[in-house]
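Researcher: We're teaching a course module on how sequence relates to structure. For the next exercise, students receive a sequence and then see the predicted structure as tokens, so they can try to spot secondary structure elements on their own. Here is the exercise chain.
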Amino acid sequence: MHQSDLDWYVTNHPNSELARLATGGAEYTDAHTPDPSDSDPGGTALMTGGDPRATGIYYDDEYSHGVFSPGTTNCSGPVPGGNVIYDSPDDINSHSLDAGQGIPGLAQDPAKIMQMTGHPQSLLVPSTFPVDPTTCKPIWPNQYLQVNTIFNVIHDAGLRTAWSAKHPAPSGVNPRQRLRSSRRGVSWLPTDASALSPTRPRARDFRFTGQLA
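Model: And here is the predicted structure for the students to work with:
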């Protein structure tokens, strides 16, 4: 989310949690970002407090010497390394705004994006994930993350969370349980820009919506 996105949202939703944070929260004038800081490593840093060296997330498409390539079914022999891509290519339909869920009439009425499933893992294709050399099974996004997140802290306190992203794979930062666990309890909502701001050009532009518990 860019500063202009926050400004627009606060102006149009003055009673939202984001508006309260923007007007009553602390502003950091000497904040630092991880390197690299955009896309997955930036978002992961916000949710974990770790840089790529700690989280293992250098980008949404990277290479790892410690995995087998996606689609591998025989993991005997030395580990050759392979691509680690947790991005739109993992979607059932990478060309669809709803990642292949098939929401009727979405193209004509972007507001229907609010009908997105609360189970984003159902829209991912595991055969596109890197393969664990120990189990010879695909590594899900939350399993690749090497540290716990603020969502773990919130869940441990018995509270609920929500996470919005541009495609299902980044929901790996919001596992219901700790690392290498199931992905139950993930709340994932991508939102099209024109569904929120009719005056803006339609684009695959996404941001937080609603309130965080």
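Model: If you want an answer key for the exercise: Confidence is low (pLDDT under 50) at residues 175-213. The chain has one domain: 35-196.
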